[in-house]
Amino acid sequence: MNVVKRQIDLKRMFTCTTFADRVRFLIELAVTAPSTHNSQPWRFVITQESCRLWFEPKKQLKEADPSSRDLFISLGCVLENFVVAAQYYGMYKEVRLHMKENFVAEVFLYDRAAAHQEEYRSLCESILKRYNARGLFERTNIHEATLKRIEDIAQKYTEQGVRLQVVQNSTDIKNVAELTAKGIRIARSKPLFRKEFAQWFRTNLSKKQDGIPGYAVGLPLLPSFIAPFLMRYCSLAKVLVRKNTESILTAPAVCVIESDTDSPETWLQVGRLAERVMLECYAHDLATSIYVAAIEMDNMSQELAQTLELRGRPQFLFTCGVPLTNHRKFTPRLSVDLVLK
Ligand SMILES: Cc1cc2nc3c(=O)[nH]c(=O)nc-3n(C[C@H](O)[C@H](O)[C@H](O)COP(=O)(O)O)c2cc1C
Asked: What is the pLDDT of residues 129-149, one digit of tens each?
């Protein structure tokens, strides 16, 4: 994989002179996390000894995510990035969950940036490499050693009530592709879903710091200008199903995260595990693509659980593999000033 990274210099941490500046830098790294429609539903408060994570209720997506599952998964992803970055700089003490009103969690930190903690270096670099690939994958299997590493990491999260299943059987992957296609057709048949999605879709020249630019789904400049209109008023199910199906069918592995419970706290842990595994994938030159249509739409999660013979409820799904095409441009992020409460 020809690796492109976000333009953030990890050495900049050592030029920060105050605790608040160091935490701001951790936030800058953390917010590169994925979120539904790139809505970035997070806010942060820096205290004298910690950083508090809040969610922004205005960013709730009533149509795409009525239960707020994906909102908390996105928050779990940003929290995991923050923790990994704090571990890399030797600043990490502990996380305490709050889950009351909009206050999600607090990460306690040491007031220092020690030398790099080597064991976290490749993970911290993965924070700068991760993107939602969406394209086709090479027909190469994932190395046994990489799979073993991913499964060992996931094992550590089982006490939080979340489990990772890595699906490699081609029949199962085909079933995942079919259920995703069904989910996309349902979503695209709903005018309110289309309206909400179109509000988050951006042209390739947009200066907005959130949402999904056309280039992120492979659109050149001119089509990116008519896409928001088409996304709103046309089903587009045929073309979206074709693109998503092609991508899923070429993936050597599908990672599904399941749980026995179904609550905001569980979803936060799902997000943490998902981000940790995705970072590990990038550390092994694999790219990842998130597809939740087979989980979010109506009662399809039961169908997915039966098809894959899961014990629990599927919560999140992404494919991984070596991407066929090189990644060029990252999606935008809100500046740190805008995500500080
Ligand atoms: C909970 C969650 C659900 C998502 N669902 C989908 C999805 O179904 N299809 C898709 O193409 N991308 C999905 N995404 C990816 C986001 O669109 C993507 O993370 C966001 O646009 C930012 O882009 P980036 O990941 O390349 O940085 C999802 C992300 C999260 C966190």
From this structure: 999 999 999 989 999 999 999
DSSP at 340: B
Atom number of ligand 1 nearest to Cα 33? 27
Measured CA angle at 304 (ends 298, 239), to 5 deg:
70
Q: Is 42 helix (H, G, I), strand (E, B) or coil?
A: strand
Q: Average pLDDT for residues 60-68, to the nearest whole number?
A: 95
CA atoms in the 13 A half-sphere facing the CB of 160: 24
At residue 55, φ and ψ (nearest 5 deg) are -110, 155
The pick from 61, 132, 241 for probing ligand 1's pocket by mutation, whose C-beta has the most ligand atoms within 8 angstroms, reads: 132
Q: How far is the CA of 39 from the centre of ligand 1 (A)?
A: 9
d(CA 141, CA 181): 24
Nearest alpha carbon, ligand 1 atom 21? 38
Return the pLDDT at 329. Answer: 95
Q: Residue 20: which region, alpha, beta or left (left: phi > 0; alpha: psi -120 to 50)? A: alpha
CB of 35 closer than 6 angstroms to any ligand 1 atom: yes
ipTM above 0.95, yes or no: yes
Distance CA 266, CA 263 (A): 5
Pocket mutation for ligand 1, best pick of 8, 29, 32, 36 (most atoms within 8 Å of C-beta): 36
Indicate the DSSP class of residue 330: P
Domains of the chain with bracketed CATH: 10-131 (3.40.109.10), 144-321 (3.40.109.10)
Closest to 57 measured CA to CA, from 75, 41, 34, 69: 41
Q: Are 291 and 244 in contact (CB under 8 A)?
A: yes
